[in-house]
Amino acid sequence: MKIQVLSLALLICLSLNAQDHSHKSTRAFSFPDVSGYKTLTTDFHQHTVFSDGNVWPTIRIMEALRDNLDAVSLTEHLEYQPHSEDIPHPDRNRAYQIALNEAKSHDLMVISGSEITRGAPIGHSNALFVTDANKLLVDKAEDAFASAKKQDAFVFWNHPAWYPQNPNGNPKLSDFQKERIKNGELHGIEVINDGDYAEESLAMALENNLTIMGTSDIHGLIDWHFKEKGHSRPITLVFAKERTKAALKEALLAGRTVAVFDELLVGKEEYLKPLLKACIEISDIAYINKTSILKVTLTNNSSSDLLFQNKMPYTFYSHPPLFTVPAKGSTTLQIKTLEKKENITLSLEAVGTYMAPKQHPTIEWEIEVGTE
């Protein structure tokens, strides 16, 4: 009897622990809102045992909660099912349904999604906001994309530079992709997949007005694949009018995104620059007494380290021109203005970020100066 009671108590404890996973990790994502928009953290390319991943869908939800994500999608391969002998599932919506049920008591949006998996030159693409993944499982790739469009899906091209399909590591926009873009069946492109940033994909995004995406494409555990190696998972920041699925979809279709991997941020200029400006708070502005050396403290309100280079006509005292403002930390600059000024323009190039291949944005803050 005692053994039965102890066993029951143990089972209850394990059950409670399994359900209590709303706590956040020390590497949880945090980015400020920008004017007019909510900044949503998302990962829209993940796998479970329902295709070629190694975890159950509930684990993906637990990981997302620890990372403080706002939205996720489990994008299982439709055509590639290596675990089908052990986990037969004729319904390709099953992973989504399990994930949705796991997230129902948490503040996490789960977006339905599937990966259309074909050989080159078609490649792999994720369709989000689908109503029935089974209808995408058809012989012709053209019909799969047409079905996604009929379901009003947002579709993006996965890892276009993936070397098994492009041996030279450079993406190529084939006639198939061109036709999908023309037909309104392809809306975005991954510029960051796993740990790979492809600036050629960024060029394609800008040339074809495609939404810029960053994803983990995780198959194993987030902790093992990224965090134990000192990285955060790649994500897409989406600038939505409100925190709803409908607003999220509207923002994706409008292209209001920035892809993030650690200190690397990639996005269109009109979205990247406001984000960077919002990330940095300026304070403690004052001249050091009886000098023309101006002290300015920069505080980084984001979860990414930000690397800057001085672009002002003034130089720094006791500080290199290239410096980092750490995530959730501060850096104090001492600017040699040569004479005391009532206001200055703080101009910094964000060298860890890209708004086009090899092009970094320069961010400016107009600051009023006091004395101490």
Describe the structure.
The chain folds into 2 domains: 241 residues, TIM Barrel (Alpha-Beta Barrel), CATH 3.20.20; 93 residues, Immunoglobulin-like. The protein is built from 9 helices and 23 strands. The chain is elongated, with a radius of gyration of 23 Å. With 372 residues, it is α/β, with parallel strands linked by helices. Strand 12 and strand 13 form a beta hairpin. Strands 4-2-1-11-12-13-21 form a 7-stranded mixed sheet, with helices on both faces. Helix 2 packs across helix 3.
CATH-assigned fold name of the largest domain: TIM Barrel
Strand content: 25-35%
Query: Which sequence of strands runs across the widest sheet?
Result: 4-2-1-11-12-13-21
Which CATH class of the largest domain applies here?
A: Alpha Beta
Can you tell me the CATH superfamily of the largest domain?
Metal-dependent hydrolases
The major beta sheet can be summarized as: 7 strands, mixed
Oligomer: single chain
From the spread of the alpha carbons, the general shape counts as elongated
The percentage helix is 10-25%
Number of strands: 23
Domain count:
2
Q: Uncertain runs with pLDDT below 50, 5 residues or more? A: 1-22
Indicate the mean pLDDT: 93
Tally of individual helices: 9
Tell me the layout of helices and strands.
Blueprint: H1 2-19, E1 38-43, H2 57-66, E2 71-73, E3 76-77, H3 94-103, E4 109-111, E5 113-117, E6 124-128, H4 141-150, E7 154-157, H5 175-182, E8 188-193, E9 196-197, H6 199-208, E10 211-215, H7 222-225, E11 235-240, H8 245-254, E12 257-261, E13 264-267, H9 269-279, E14 280-287, E15 293-300, E16 306-310, E17 315-316, E18 322-325, E19 330-336, E20 343-350, E21 353-354, E22 362-368, E23 370-371
Parallel strand pairs: 1-2, 2-4, 3-5, 7-8, 8-10, 13-21, 14-23
Antiparallel strand pairs: 1-11, 5-6, 6-7, 8-9, 11-12, 12-13, 14-15, 15-19, 16-18, 16-20, 17-19, 20-22
Helix pairs in contact: 2-3
